[in-house]
Amino acid sequence: MSYKDAIKKVQEESRELFDKRSPEYNKTFEKFGPIGVVLGISSKIADLINVTNNNISLASDKKLREILIDLNNYSAMGIILIDECSKTHPVLNNDSIENNSIDTDLYQHSSY
């Protein structure tokens, strides 16, 4: 399988997981807006590594794969938010993103 075909396959699987977990994604997004995307990503990164007093271990391969697909979905949600907010709020630009000055209420203008 070529990388191009493999990427398509992963994107299809990502969409399937998004459809399955849409209520979970939407709940985080609706409750916290743009910060919800960051919280979702942070949570999934924490899930990648299990830290105990005695060792640090990675999630199992199956779990790791699912977490990475979740990260893909949260990243896509962040990109959609930035694109939508840029259309409805021309003030949103690279400077506001770099300076963390994005109004957290902007997500309400998104259709997602």
Determine the fraction of residues in helical runs and give it as a percent range. 55-70%
Q: Biggest sheet: strands side by side, in what order?
A: 1-2
The residue-averaged pLDDT reads 76
Backbone shape: globular
The helix/strand class is mainly alpha
How many domains, in number, for the residues?
A: 1
Task: Report the span from N to C terminus.
Answer: 33 Å
What is the count of DSSP helices, taking H or I runs of 4+ residues? 4
The major pleated sheet works out as: 2 strands, antiparallel
Describe this entry's structure for a reader:
The chain is mostly helical. The chain has one domain (3-109). It is 70% helix and 5% strand. It is built from four helices and two strands, in the order H-H-E-E-H-H. Strands 1-2 form a two-stranded antiparallel sheet. Helix 1 crosses helix 2 (34-48) and helix 1 (3-32) packs across helix 3 (61-88). The longest helix has 30 residues, at 3-32. It is globular. The N and C termini lie far apart (33 Å).
Tell me briefly what this model is.
The chain has 4 helices and 2 strands, in the order H-H-E-E-H-H. It is mainly alpha-helical and 112 residues long.
Topology, element by element:
Blueprint: H1 3-32, H2 34-48, E1 49-51, E2 56-58, H3 61-88, H4 94-98
Antiparallel strand pairs: 1-2
Helix pairs in contact: 1-2, 1-3, 2-3
Q: What labels would you give this structure?
A:
112 residues, mainly alpha, two-stranded antiparallel ribbon, 4 helices, 2 strands
